[in-house]
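User: Let's play a game. I give you a shape written as tokens, and you guess the letters that built it. Ready? Here's round one.
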């Protein structure tokens, strides 16, 4: 058999090899793309569940503060002080004069300075010291006059404040209210204002209003507990996209980067088209693609003004880094395989080309070894 029968057409071989490797690389990319899409869906669901858990934790935190307010208004010293204050004659002009003097001097006038020495005030001071998140606690009588406080308030007459009127509710029993997070000028913090009506010790008649200013920085503990790699973060939003609380910013003008998509998905949720949480991809302000999971707070069912949403997001680049690393490794293996096969083809072609032209090759079969041998030229011819 002539050696030309064993020679390899390197060009043809290389063409088929390269085409095969390219086809394999395309197929691998296609399969990895499907896997990446499935991972995106699965991880989006995971982010939605994380947002659900964070929303539940925030709901529990706020409800705990509401329960605290309900308990505090039932304390005998609070109810008795409110009832006693409401029995005093109310002179609107005298009250406004005290209020003007209070705001001008930023201190209680001598005529009402004793309100900080009552048992009710001592109790409120103790509460604020035991719970530092309660930055300010105020107690007014039925007319809105300040009768006890944990610290010097910004004014004396509270009946003209929105929170007081909302809680007073016409005076028939009143109602417990919770404001959205806002900047409290008196306490100098972003806070929730929880306002509870105070009932008469001997009945259910409204005799006062108790206001609690709760610092919201503890919400950062809940949101900060959401750990998602190096780029993951959680924010508490309103449905208009403004931030209730964020570890990055408390700018009231700041907007969540995917507000429009968030509204659209939440609307579908309320119409029953999706589950309680949602997930989607969006491009952030810096141009990076992020996967977002969001869940609505249940507070809105009781307190419509607290229409909050927890949004959890993470960079796609970090999420898909393991898959991309595997894809690069696969391409590297394919490239090394191609080089190895080409080198072997060139080596085998060179060895075969080096044989004498008249060499007849045949296979010598052995039970364990298969090899190519040249015939012995000196062997006798039978």
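Assistant: Ready! My guess for every position:
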């Amino acid at each position: 058999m002539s050696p030309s029968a064993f020679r390899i057409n390197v060009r043809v071989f290389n063409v088929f090899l390269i085409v095969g490797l390219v086809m394999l690389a395309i197929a691998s990319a296609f399969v990895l793309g499907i896997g990446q899409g499935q991972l995106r869906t699965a991880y989006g669901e995971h982010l939605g569940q994380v947002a659900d858990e964070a929303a539940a934790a925030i709901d529990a935190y706020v409800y705990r503060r509401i329960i605290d307010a309900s308990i505090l208004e039932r304390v005998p010293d609070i109810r008795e002080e409110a009832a006693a204050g409401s029995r005093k004659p109310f002179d609107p002009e005298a009250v406004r004069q005290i209020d003007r003097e209070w705001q001008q001097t930023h201190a209680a006038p001598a005529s009402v300075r004793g309100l900080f020495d009552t048992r009710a005030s001592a109790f409120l001071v103790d509460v604020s010291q035991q719970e530092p998140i309660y930055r300010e606690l105020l107690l007014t009588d039925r007319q809105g006059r300040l009768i006890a406080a944990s610290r010097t308030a910004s004014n004396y007459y509270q009946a003209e404040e929105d929170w007081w009127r909302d809680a007073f509710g016409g005076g028939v029993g009143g109602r417990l209210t919770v404001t959205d997070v806002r900047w409290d000028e008196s306490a100098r913090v972003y806070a929730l204002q929880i306002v509870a009506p105070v009932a008469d010790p001997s009945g259910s008649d409204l005799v006062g209003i108790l206001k609690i200013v709760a610092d919201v920085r503890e919400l950062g503990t809940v949101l900060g507990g959401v750990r998602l790699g190096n780029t993951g973060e959680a924010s508490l939003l309103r449905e208009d996209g403004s931030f209730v609380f964020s570890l990055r910013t408390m700018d009231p003008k700041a907007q969540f980067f995917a507000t429009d998509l968030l509204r659209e998905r939440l609307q579908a949720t309320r119409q029953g088209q999706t589950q309680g949480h949602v997930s989607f991809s969006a491009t952030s302000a810096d141009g990076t693609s992020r996967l977002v999971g969001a869940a609505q707070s249940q507070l809105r069912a009781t307190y419509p003004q607290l229409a909050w949403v927890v949004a959890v997001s993470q960079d796609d680049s970090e999420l898909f880094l393991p898959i991309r690393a595997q894809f690069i490794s696969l391409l590297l293996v394919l490239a090394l395989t191609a080089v190895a096969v080409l080198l072997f083809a060139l080596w085998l072609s060179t060895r075969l080309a080096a044989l004498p032209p008249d060499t007849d090759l045949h296979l010598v079969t052995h039970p364990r070894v298969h090899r190519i041998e040249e015939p012995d030229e000196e062997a006798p011819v039978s």
